[in-house]
Automatic annotation (TrEMBL):
CDD domains per the UniProt record, alphabetical: LuxR_C_like
Species for this entry: Microbispora triticiradicis
HTH luxR-type domain segment(s): 877-938
Keywords: ATP-binding, Nucleotide-binding, TPR repeat
Protein known as: LuxR family transcriptional regulator
A GO term, aspect molecular function: ATP binding
Superkingdom as given in the UniProt entry: Bacteria
Length: 938
């Protein structure tokens, strides 16, 4: 009997609609088919639950894998509970009396039994007619027969009879496993024929995709924030089969642990199901299945035969659906849990022998797969071969640029209690070096800390491992507070290895991290260079040079480009070029902050190339994230929100390295009036722990938050945020990072009547950026001075300064900042009574609109309306009949975010009554009844 899943129905909307429609419009015959656990029963139950109300009988029967002799049992089982729906016996077709012996529960409600017939075939036909007549009498009904693949021939014949000429009010629904088809051909036999006046449908269920698996797991766990990496791994292990997803979710210890799915093991029901299927196979087929389980990966016929020791059995295992054919002529399991269930059931000695045969077969290949060889050596009990193959596999992966695989191999070996102590030191050192250039960090950090607590690492190895741990904590984990102490302790342990200590001092010297003044960072950099100068270590020299180039660029030094030109981009050693890759990615980030966008693009190209060559995942991700920030600054906003969100999903384990993305998402939300979203994103960009986050991005996020408070009329909150941010910037002393912050802070101070504070900040900023190669900072200085002049009522000076800022931002280019400066200039000219202000303000509104800054555009339009200028929104002409206008799209977007009419009015500078009118129009045009049904417009 099928087990009714308790999981929600996910990803089956089209199939559900088809099934409901067929059930509601008899006569109909529907076959629901798919592999075991795919959700056939769940779909049928959901359709029955959602059927339109009416006087309809639902009759359920089940085919059983182990059954007693009982002809037509599943159908009779479905008919046993219909007594209450039957008319009086004298009104029933007399042929139904033939069913008295089969349905003793209904004997009193049926006509008398007819005289027996001498011909068994005629008797069977009379029973079939009796069942059909009884179903006709029941009235509108749905007959559901589950698991047709286990039906006896008689039941198949009966269903074929009923389906061939179903009563007018009957819908027949049968479910069947597709991979266990019994006799070949159609499920109801070759004699089955469709009737033209009966709907005949086949609903085929396929596995869920990654999104569907995530939705199902989220519903089962009652969570909407499952990490993308967890969902992807869950899909990989379950192949999207709902039953398997549900079973493994039920056995999970939790989803936060990176290896939660691996530790969950194989659910008991799945183990039992696999054991049941294996019991039906011949010894040769069992051998093939067990060989495939030992190999772990889909393999070709020859490899499976070499491990099983027998060339027979594979075909039978495939026909039984235990093994499946994969692309490229390889064979394996449908999903990882099935493989694990079979593997766990193989006796230990047999497993070791099979692993040994696998080692022999794989080792004989022209290019032996080292990772697989290490795996089989470990499980065959050959420790020396395991260490040798594993170390070689990690080195090969790193040399080919696959750092993630190298880290995974070493992690697995170090995490194994069977690894001998003498082998742990070299592997720990290799892991720590590779982790510093990869993305993954959570498991690495735990493992390295565990190793550092042990006694088997020598002093010099311990110091280097601890130094790399500090780098991973400060960079990938974004936890400077935890990383700095590790690095400081490592420097003490590396006192007798000055060249390696140089790497530690050079890392501490990066001013973007920590709250020390830049002068202290400069001292650490000088110390690193002094230590490495006397050494002959190209990799460490490249690391220190990379940090020097990054240091010079991030402070806007005129020497930065000369230092960058010395980076060893063509060095034959991968590790040396990996340091150059890191440098170019850092240079791109700093050049983006400075407003050197042409140089930033060149750095990005070189950084990507080198990172791809050398497997430097962490720098490669950083250059992609900071590219998103550059695209925002340079006005390439089309699709930027989706690109930023998608890239952020790649950093589920290391969200703090995605601060550029959260910053951009916050700034986009600010420009469209999505206040709560902007606040959340600015928080994630570093304002949650500003002392421990990436300082240039934190400064920009603080500038965005100041603007957010000002837009909402919260001047006191804006001033408080500005004061905190300026204190951090002043303490660090790298004023070129203030291009987004300082103009906003000056505006906030002036709005609060603190003109002296605004003046002092502008003056201090001017001194801080003087002589620096930082076009964005110099344009921001003009904008800050213009805001100050405007607040002081010096409108002519303000107009000139805003114009200069507008031109500077236009050259960079920074279109949004240029539009803000143009708006300030127009407002200053309005105050002067300049007639050119009106068209300038109209053009500025259009600039904002073209970018997608709807809140800013609405602000300009409100000002135009206030001075008596008619404003027409762009995009009003030529749209399709019934389509949303530009204003209606803006309203719909905010409604979809859950904003009230009052909040929408504040964002778009409209009256509440006007917003009410727009909302009503949106509801009408979209054909929905409720605000909650409005989706964000595309």
């Amino acid at each position: 009997m099928s087990i009714v899943p308790s999981s929600p129905l996910v990803g089956r909307a089209p199939e559900l609609a088809t099934l409901i429609d067929a059930m509601a419009r008899p006569p109909a015959v529907v076959l629901v088919e798919g592999e075991a656990g795919i959700g056939k029963t769940r779909l049928v139950r959901a359709a029955l639950d959602r059927l339109p109300r009416g006087d309809r009988a639902v009759l359920l029967g089940y085919c059983h894998q182990i059954r007693e002799p009982f002809p037509y049992g599943p159908v009779f089982e479905a008919l046993r509970d219909i007594r209450g729906r039957l008319p009086a016996a004298h009104r029933l077709n007399p042929v139904t009396g033939a069913l008295r012996g089969h349905l003793p529960e209904l004997a009193g409600a049926l006509p008398p039994s007819p005289q027996p017939l001498n011909d068994p075939r005629a008797e069977r036909h009379r029973v079939f007619r009796g069942i059909r007549a009884l179903l006709t009498a029941v009235g509108p009904a749905v007959l559901v027969i589950e698991d047709l693949h286990w039906a006896d021939d008689g039941t198949r014949d009966l269903l074929r009879f009923l389906s061939g000429q179903p009563p007018e009010g009957l819908a027949v629904v049968v479910t069947r496993r597709r991979e266990e088809g019994g006799p070949p051909g159609p499920p109801l036999g070759l004699a089955y024929r469709h009737q033209p006046d009966t709907a005949h449908l086949t609903v085929r269920l396929t596995p869920l995709d990654v999104s569907g698996v995530g939705s199902l797991a989220g519903a089962l766990l009652e969570r909407s924030d499952l990490p993308a990496g967890f969902v992807a791994r869950l899909y990989e292990r379950t192949a999207g089969i709902p039953f398997v997803v549900e079973e493994i979710i039920r056995s999970l210890p939790g989803v936060e642990e990176p290896d939660a799915l691996e530790r969950a093991g194989v659910p008991l029901l799945l183990r039992e199901a696999m054991a049941e299927r294996m019991a039906c196979l011949s010894p040769a087929a069992v051998g093939a299945v067990q060989a495939a389980a030992v190999l772990g990966l889909p393999a070709d016929e020859h490899l499976i035969a070499a491990v099983s020791g027998d060339s027979a059995g594979l075909g039978e295992a495939l026909r039984a659906g235990v093994l499946h054919e994969h692309p490229g002529g390889r064979y394996g399991f449908r999903h990882a849990l099935a493989q694990q269930a079979v593997y766990d059931a193989v006796p230990g000695p047999d497993r070791r022998s099979a692993h040994d045969r696998a080692m022999t077969a794989l080792g004989a290949m022209e290019s032996p797969p080292l990772v697989q060889l290490a795996f089989h050596a470990r499980h065959a009990g050959d420790t020396a071969a395991w260490i040798g193959h594993g170390t070689a596999a990690a080195r090969q992966a790193a040399a080919l640029g696959d750092t993630a695989l190298a880290v995974e191999v070493i992690e697995g070996m170090l995490d194994d209690p069977g690894l001998p102590a003498p082998a742990r030191g070299p592997l720990a050192l290799m892991l720590s070096r590779l982790a510093a250039t990869g993305l993954s960090h959570q498991r690495v950090v735990r493992l390295l800390r565990h190793l550092l607590r042990g006694e088997f690492l020598s002093g010099d190895v311990r110091g280097e491992v601890r130094l790399n741990l500090g780098l991973v904590l400060s960079n990938q984990a974004g936890d400077v507070a935890a990383g700095r102490p590790e690095m400081t302790a490592a420097l003490a342990e590396l006192s007798d290895r000055p060249t390696l200590a140089a790497r530690g001092w050079a890392s501490l010297a990066m001013p973007e991290w920590g709250d020390e003044p830049v002068s202290e960072h400069a001292g650490w950099m000088a110390r690193a260079e002094a230590l490495v100068a006397a050494a002959d270590n190209p990799e460490l020299a490249a690391a220190v040079l990379a940090n020097r180039a990054s240091f010079e660029m991030t402070i806007g030094s005129a020497d930065a480009f000369a230092v960058a030109a010395r980076l060893p981009v063509a060095d034959p050693v991968t590790e040396v070029r990996r340091e150059a890759a890191r440098a170019f990615c850092n240079l791109h980030d700093s050049a983006t902050t400075l407003g050197l966008y042409g140089a930033a693009e060149r750095f990005a190209r070189e950084g990507r190339r080198l990172a791809l060559e050398t497997g430097a995942q962490y720098p490669a991700y950083l250059v992609e994230a900071s590219t998103i920030r550059r695209e925002w600054l340079t006005g390439r906003w089309d699709g930027l929100r989706d690109r930023a969100a998608s890239l952020g999903e790649l950093a589920t384990e290391t969200p703090l390295i995605a601060v550029d993305l959260w910053l951009v998402l916050g700034l986009l939300a600010l420009a469209t009036g999505e206040w709560e979203e902007a606040l959340k994103h600015f928080h994630n960009a570093g304002l949650d722990a500003p002392e421990s986050r990436h300082a240039p991005v934190v400064a920009a996020a603080a500038g965005g938050l100041v603007e957010l408070h000002l837009a909402r009329g919260r001047v006191d909150a804006a001033v408080a945020e500005a004061e905190r941010a300026v204190v951090r910037l002043r303490r660090k002393g790298v004023w070129v990072w203030g291009a987004t912050l300082v103009p906003s802070a000056v505006t906030a101070f002036a709005a609060a009547g603190r003109l002296r504070a605004a003046h002092d900040l502008a003056t201090e900023y001017a001194g801080g950026v003087a002589g620096r190669v930082a076009p964005a900072a110099h344009a921001a200085l003009d904008a800050a001075l213009a805001a100050l002049a405007s607040a002081e009522g010096r409108h002519a000076d303000a107009a000139g300064l805003f114009a200069r800022a507008r031109r500077a931002y236009g050259v960079l280019p920074q279109p949004y900042a240029a539009a803000r400066a143009a708006e300030g200039e127009a407002r200053a000219r309005l105050a002067l009574g300049d007639g050119a202000a009106t068209p300038a303000l109209r053009e500025t509104a259009e600039r904002y609109a073209r970018l997608g800054a709807t809140h800013d555009a609405a602000r300009c339009r409100r000002l135009l309306r206030e001075i008596g200028v008619e404003v027409r929104l762009p995009g009003g002409r030529g749209r399709k009949a019934g389509g949303l206008s530009q204003r209606e799209k803006e309203v719909a977007r905010l409604v979809a975010l859950g904003r009230t009419n009052r909040e929408i009015a504040d964002v778009l500078f409209l009256s509440t009554r006007t917003v009410e009118t727009h909302v009503a129009t949106v509801l009408r045009k979209l054909g929905v009844r409720s605000r909650t049904q409005i989706a964000p417009p595309a």
